[in-house]
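Re: beginner question about structure tokens

> Can someone show what the tokenized structure looks like for a real chain? I only ever see the sequence side.

Sure, here's an example I had lying around. Input first:
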Amino acid sequence: MRFAAFLLMMPGVALAQSTTSANDLEYRDADVEEKAPSKLQASGFFEVQWHEFDNLDFRPLDESSDQAILDSDDRTHSAFTGVSLNLAYDADDRVRFVLGASHRGLWGTDQFGGTNIFGGWAYFNAAYVDLHAGNIDKPILFRVGRQFYKLGGLGNAPDFMLADVLDMVRVDIPIGDVGKVTLIPINVMHSAGASSTDGANFNRFTGQSGNTTFGFRGDRMTRRFGAVLDLTDLGPVHAIAYGFYSDLGALGTGSDITYNGLLGNFTDNDWVANVGARAEVKVMDDKLVPFAALDVSTGIDRKELVARDVDTNGLAITAGATLDLRDEDNGDGMAVNAYFYYALGPTYANDGLLDSHGYVGMKGQQVGGLIANRYMGWHPAAYVELFGVDDSPNDFDRKSGTQALHASMNYERGIVYGDLAWWMMTDTGYSFLFEDGNDRINQITPPFGYSREAMAAQIRHGRLLGHEVNLGLGAHATDRVDLYGVGAIMLSKGSEANPGFYTIPAARVAGGQLGSPRNTLKNPWGVTGGVRVKL
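And the corresponding structure tokens:
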């Protein structure tokens, strides 16, 4: 249906969070038809996007000094061309190889064809082999290599728990006609770079990260193990339960005790466990899909001896529904999507030290629309990544506990389509340092490695991050070509009685989002347009 093509193309669209899956490389699956008549199948796309935005730093333009300009002048115009190619080869009826790669380049000065942030020419979102064992009609699937994986089971809502391109071994075992069990015996989130390959000559010819670390008795790998029970055929109910364990290596928060190896050659032995359950129910001939999820985390992030160990005990709740009233034949009509998400944020004691990260996930999708998602890269919960537990509420690409309310309406008629989407995002952290409005910041003495300036930013917690509104319009030029435009604004000032998160200026040591007083804060805005061609 044409409307489905729109959802796969358009930034700002909320239904299925397709804006992210269509545009952000880390959410792109290798979409290749498995039952094609040829052994070799291919698919791909071509895209051109133009972007303009301002005030992502929430600050008014200040040209009083070079540093002030760096801190406040973020007005940007940019355009890029992107191409993607997905290939699949069926060696026989039990072996299938899939490769997916994308490249983007900014316009001007031959930047198309240059390297990206990963240090390569292309971003690979898939490079795996499927091996089918047992009954060929319902085989056991062994998938080895780089692959996109998402828990699912939340209607058309984004999955804030786990949705990422992962390097792992995966085994899908069918359970009759009811569903399957997915075992993940190993998922490597990070292997330390060149220093870990000393003496292994072949690794000189192997792609590696520039983030290296030394020693630690070989404990330099961050890895995960888990299992998922996916019951897809319980009448109208689709239910999922899962459990994962993450073992953190030495890089980043995994070696706080020794100050990243300066005072010793051992890791902190940090770990995080995640369990949860979710379900969606398809009713009204699958037009209405309510869903709900409960995600729980526990674990430990050990800190320096001058501080306290920090737990990762927390929960996240998701609930919502999708109502799809589109015509099944031509796609005309309306679709509505709404969800509520809450992830427990960090908790700080009255001495300013962190006691708990709150809920810590496994890198799910980003929250918001064109601004919070595509431009700022906000994640609504802390999560485990290559540097350990990433809990950064004051960074530009914030990753910390968030409450998100969302509603959107999408409508299509003939070749024209449009959507209106809204998000309300609120920080869920809490600091006893500022309990009941009391300011104890000048009564504490931070230990070595901690600063009063960074702790002062804790007063931001529990406040409004922003209301984001997106409006998008587009047209199907042909069955394969779409033209679109999206405008977005984020309102972040809050009220005088309850000012927003970013109306409280923070020191640079607390994070990259410095903020600005309410009377001078500037609301972020952005516009984008482009063309997308499905090949």
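Each token stands for a local structural state, so reading them left to right follows the chain. Confidence is low (pLDDT under 50) at residues 1-22.
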